[in-house]
Write a structure and sequence with these properties.
The protein contains 15 helices and 16 strands. By secondary structure, it is of the alpha/beta class. The protein has a 7-stranded mixed β-sheet, sandwiched between helices. A 4-stranded mixed β-sheet has the order 1-2-3-15. It binds pyridoxal-5'-phosphate.
């Protein structure tokens, strides 16, 4: 590729590109950051400046960038073949990976359906659930129950089970109808209650919804333990377990979306392990390939899989697939990823880092404009508020979270907020020293932005 200067690249970007989740009017005025390389936990821009990757390249990177083992695995696969279709053909990597995945998946999950992103993995989960009931003679079970503040991706099916007004309400005419249960957002409880005296009233609402729609609900869709894009909303102790039991009581399938939480992010391989919950269907993506290449998977039980078996003419087949399903390069990265998890005992190595993070966050929690810190494992959300006593949020247009992230970028750290929740979600390979630096810079950036009069931008 011909070498371009920063100015040339910036000008071409602003002339031709449209970036995701980005107000392009502001983008076109900004000095944009153009990343060219990575090394360990750092991103390196075209001018050679290094940045700590504080959000793991959108919650995906696991063992750092340019990991020798993963690079080598992808390189070796490239010498064989980059891609062949998975429709009607198979390949060794995908076969081997399926068994490795089932070995680590929650008990009861026995089948792997590959795809290429979190949204497709959830979309597939929804379609499988619906068709499961159809194939087993219960087509009236077609309603999906999901949560306010849920985020499951940006395809229409995933948006339908989503519950973030800002992202999803525009598309309402396109979405299929779902029933929404309250978000387990204790800091701003929708039901006006206080945990634990609420006795998990929000989860009882799920029971009420399922009872009111007895025999008509296909599945309950949840992000286990933490609603990530909704603002890193950690559910109260016992919520997930209770929700799973309620789904079981009503014979409703439980779909867990582990796209953000899977592969060690919460301190366990999968978040549902925190409350020993075993879903019927589970979606994973992001960390499955260590954040290297687009890969996702939807796991199901053998019982669900069996409902799709039949004679050709019975049309029980799951008519779904993508051109790049189980791409061999992505699969090679995923196998190397899981080998590293096992060989380097990553989950065990992570525990002291999580404790260090928890200790360090205490100082930040005491800041004047930090309303609440929600942490589960290596996932942290810092909710900024205008008034700590009343929990009054900052005006949306002040972009307080974005300004904190812009401030910290000057000091060589990349973060991306969710509105006024500052998100910390570094690669699991972050070192203790880097955690301390991240915490110190976050504290400084929050102080700089919030402890002076807010300026309208
Ligand atoms: C819980 C959850 N599900 C699904 C998705 C969508 O994943 P993707 O962006 O790979 O489509 C995300 C993305 O952040 C997510 O956090």
């Amino acid at each position: 590729m011909k070498r371009y200067t920063y100015q040339q690249l910036s000008s071409i970007d602003k002339s031709y590109l449209w970036h995701p989740f980005t107000q392009m009017k502001s983008w076109e005025k900004e000095e944009i950051l153009i990343i060219e390389k990575g090394s360990g936990n750092y991103l390196i821009d075209v001018n050679g400046k290094r940045y700590l990757d504080g959000v793991a390249s959108l919650w995906a990177n696991v063992h750092g960038h340019r990991n020798k083992k993963i690079d080598g695995a992808v390189d070796n696969q490239l010498k064989k073949i980059a891609h062949s279709t998975f429709l009607g053909l198979s390949h060794p990597g995908a076969i081997i990976l399926s068994r490795m995945l089932i070995d680590i998946a929650p008990d009861g999950l026995k089948r792997v359906f590959y795809s290429d992103s979190g949204a497709t993995a959830v979309e597939i989960a929804i379609k499988i659930a619906l068709q499961y009931w159809f194939n087993t003679g219960k087509p009236q079970r077609h309603i999906f129950v999901s949560l306010n503040n849920a985020y499951h991706g940006d395809t229409i099916g995933s948006v339908s089970v989503g519950g973030i007004g800002l992202f999803h309400s525009t598309y309402k005419p396109l979405l299929f109808k779902t029933i929404k249960a309250p978000s387990p957002y204790c800091y701003r409880c929708e039901l006006g209650l206080v945990y634990p005296s609420c006795k998990l009233a929000c989860v009882q609402k799920i029971d009420e919804i399922l009872a009111r729609n007895e025999g008509r609900v296909a599945a309950l869709v949840l992000e286990p333990m933490i609603q990530a894009a909704g603002g890193f909303i950690t559910s109260p102790h016992g919520y997930l377990k209770a929700a799973a039991m309620i789904a079981k009581k009503h014979n409703v399938l439980l779909i867990l979306d582990e796209v953000a939480t899977g592969f060690g992010r919460t301190g366990k391989m999968f978040a549902c392990e925190h409350e020993d919950v075993k879903p019927d269907i589970m979606a994973v993506a992001k960390g499955i390939s260590a954040g290297y290449l687009p890969l996702a998977a939807t796991f199901t039980t053998q019982n669900i899989y069996n409902a799709f078996l039949g004679e050709y003419a019975e049309k029980k087949t799951f008519y779904h697939g993508h051109t790049y399903t189980a791409n061999p390069l992505a699969v090679a990265a995923a196998i190397a990823n899981l080998e590293i998890f096992k060989k380097d005992k990553i989950i065990r190595q992570l525990q002291p880092k999580i404790r260090l993070l928890t200790r360090g966050l205490k100082k930040i929690a005491a800041l004047e404009h930090v309303g609440q810190i929600r942490q589960l494992g290596m996932m942290t959300g810092i909710e900024l508020v205008l008034d700590k006593k009343t929990k009054q949020p900052y005006p949306f247009e002040h972009r307080t979270g974005a300004r904190v992230c812009a401030e910290i970028r000057k000091h060589g750290i990349i973060l991306r907020p969710l509105d006024d929740v500052v998100v910390l979600m570094p690669p699991l390979s972050i070192t203790e020293q880097e955690i301390l630096r991240l915490l110190a810079e976050v504290e400084k950036a929050i102080r700089t932005v919030t402890e002076k009069p807010t300026v309208k931008t």
